[in-house]
């Protein structure tokens, strides 16, 4: 991509530290000839998309939650994002707050490199009419309400029936979201570059529905076959939709829907270790070669 000439900074709303840091970064960028605009909180999708259209980079100051909100509103625009981590995990907002200057110096010194990933696009249909459409960065979760009862869902893939599922819920996750709720439900970790998404049940009745990986172009349809129990769809853990019996959610991959500025350096495995998703138990194996007497070492 071309060198960065303009930056939109989006801060976590109501976070004085983020706003102060945004002012510091804005001054730093202006001194280097880069135009800058600061927005407190992502707000509504349309104004954010309009502001981001003129930016070569959207810099997000907050944690992974703030990154999710911004990335979801900008899904499909192709505008690259970079997160400065003021939160905890920092799997999406990967730049430590104390390293912002060195990171931006590197980004301004060469053409920007980006990593494009799959997002989810979904619609909710009620009585044959689409009542909601949206995008998801991490996942769409269909689950029960306050009562501790299983729900029943009918699942189709590409127009073919897959199964009727009785479970606490269902997680449809992107590769980016595989390290979120899905991995807690024993879904697979996925390389973010994969053109695929997962369908993972939450506590399936009798355990008869393993996690399923679908190609990014697949269409997964989930119909609510439940009477008298509250059912909700939650998008990225941030937005919710109340569902009724007979409602149908249709989901598919949005190729290149997410765009992140990449810094190089550590790869996916290094990030998994750094964020605690895998543990590296170093060990020394015994010498299995025969000794000079022709006998092998006992193990």
What does this structure look like?
Pfam families: NAD_kinase, NAD_kinase_C. The longest helix has 16 residues, at 16-31. The protein is α+β, with helices and mostly antiparallel strands and 299 residues long. The protein folds into two domains: 6-113 and 262-274, Rossmann fold (3-Layer(aba) Sandwich); 118-256, Sandwich (Tumour Suppressor Smad4), CATH 2.60.200. The protein has helices spanning 16-31, 45-52, 64-73, 100-108, 181-184, 268-274; strands at 6-11, 35-40, 57-62, 81-85, 95-96, 114-126, 129-136, 139-144, 151-157, 160-167, 169-173, 196-202, 212-215, 219-224, 231-235, 239-243, 248-261. 18% of the residues lie in helices and 38% in strands.
Task: Provide a concise account of the structure shown.
The protein has 299 residues and is of the alpha+beta class.
CATH superfamily of the largest domain: Probable inorganic polyphosphate/atp-NAD kinase, domain 2
Question: Structural class from helices and strands?
Answer: alpha+beta
Number of strands: 17
Order of helices and strands: EHEHEHEEHEEEEEEHEEEEEEH
The CATH architecture of the largest domain would be: Sandwich
Distance, first to last CA? 55 Å
Number of domains: 2
The main sheet comes to: 6 strands, antiparallel
How many H/I helices?
6
EC number: 2.7.1.23
GO biological process, one term: NADP biosynthetic process
InterPro entries: ATP-NAD_kinase_N (IPR017438), ATP-NAD_kinase_PpnK-typ_C (IPR017437), NAD/diacylglycerol_kinase_sf (IPR016064), NADK (IPR002504)
Organism: Nitratidesulfovibrio vulgaris (strain ATCC 29579 / DSM 644 / CCUG 34227 / NCIMB 8303 / VKM B-1760 / Hildenborough)
